[in-house]
Specification:
Layout (H helix, E strand, L loop, with lengths): L16 H19 L4 H22 L11 H14 L9 H11 L15 E3 L5 E4 L6 H14 L4 H15 L6 H15 L10 H7 L1 H7 L7 H23 L14 H12 L3 E2 H5 L7 H13 L3 E4 L6 E4 L2
Antiparallel strand pairs: 1-2, 3-5, 4-5
Keywords: ATP-binding, Nucleotide-binding
Protein name: Fido domain-containing protein
InterPro entries: Fido, Fido-like_dom_sf, Fido_containing
């Protein structure tokens, strides 16, 4: 093992035997994903679920109580950014304007985002205890310039660059809110550009949320990123294995239209199945955060797929499961 020779602001890591083994396992996993049979219906379903999970669990890591069935605004904003990342919307290398844009989109209609913090701040653990002071606000412009240059020129495997980018970003803590969410977006952008997005089917954030204590331990006040790199690579591998198992078990059936529904549409279908002849108002009460036009589109999709029946005029319509 050795300490990395190219250091910035004293950040460092050991290239441990564990890390080397994880890198080999990741490359094998990547190759396995690339050689799987092309099953567009399976891939699309997994991609939709993965992006939703990434958004919801990234918000939950930050303490937002959210669900996949009815994601709140924080998760909806994140989902929009994740989709843009995997659609290849962001073509330029990492830069401060891009980071600010991430922040602005994630906090859209919640608070004013897109700017560096101007106040002193601390890093808190999951219990709310301050565990480290962050750099002074006056240092942030110079630190962010150095950070961006360091990440863009770092000659390490893509997965290590992604882990280090998140680790250092959270240490700098340049934003007034949402640093964890933005740090994870940056790491996902790097993975995607480096060919390690695994077809957008690995919700890394689900693993982090399930192992939140280990996540915070790996981010403890130190500039040694070794533990965090090991955690990050392990998370990628474990979530990749879960996705592979779903694919190999025939996660999606080509003959079952229910398999291609969104999670909310699946929930609506279950409600109608359990409550025959229910009205739109009855369904709407279960999804207060969802607009009526969106719910009508969901119902139209279920009707089109011959999963439910629609009876009566629009104002007095009822819905039931098709026999």
């Amino acid at each position: 093992m050795y300490y990395h020779l190219i250091m910035w602001e004293n950040y460092r890591w050991n290239k441990t035997e564990i890390i080397n083994k994880l890198l080999i396992e990741l490359d094998a996993l990547k190759l396995l994903f690339e050689t799987l049979p092309q099953l567009p219906h399976v891939e699309e379903k997994l991609r939709r679920l993965s992006l939703l999970k990434s958004s919801v669990y990234s918000a939950r890591i930050e303490g937002f109580d959210d669900t996949e069935i009815n994601p709140k605004l924080e998760s909806q904003n994140l989902l929009e950014v994740y989709r843009k990342i995997y659609a290849g919307t962001y073509v330029h290398e990492l830069n401060l304007d891009l980071i600010k844009d991430f922040h602005k989109q994630v906090l859209k209609t919640i608070v004013d985002g897109g700017h560096l913090r101007t106040e002193p701040w601390a890093i808190f653990d999951q219990s709310g205890n301050a565990i480290a002071m962050t750099p002074m606000a006056s240092e942030l412009p110079g630190l962010m310039e150095g950070y961006i240059n360091f990440i863009n020129t770092l000659l390490e495997p893509v997965t290590i660059v992604a882990a280090v980018s998140q680790f250092i970003f959270e240490k700098i803590h340049p934003l007034p809110d949402g640093n964890g969410r933005i740090g994870r977006l940056i790491s996902m952008l790097i993975l995607h550009r480096g060919g390690y997005a695994f077809k957008s089917q690995i919700p890394l954030e689900e693993y982090i949320e399930a192992h939140r204590e280990s996540y915070y331990v790996a981010l403890m006040p130190s500039k040694d990123a070794t533990g965090f790199i090991e955690f990050f690579l392990t998370a990628l591998i474990e979530q990749g294995k879960v996705t592979l198992q779903k694919i190999q078990n025939g996660f999606v059936s080509t003959t079952d239209p229910k398999q291609l529904l969104s999670l909310r549409q699946e929930e609506i279908y279950e409600i109608i199945k359990d409550h025959p002849n229910c009205s739109f108002d009855f369904i709407k009460r279960r999804f207060l955060a969802v607009s009526s036009p969106t719910l009508y589109r969901d119902l139209a999709r279920l009707v089109k797929d011959n999963l439910i029946l629609h009876r009566g005029a629009t104002s007095n319509a009822v819905y039931c499961k098709k026999v």
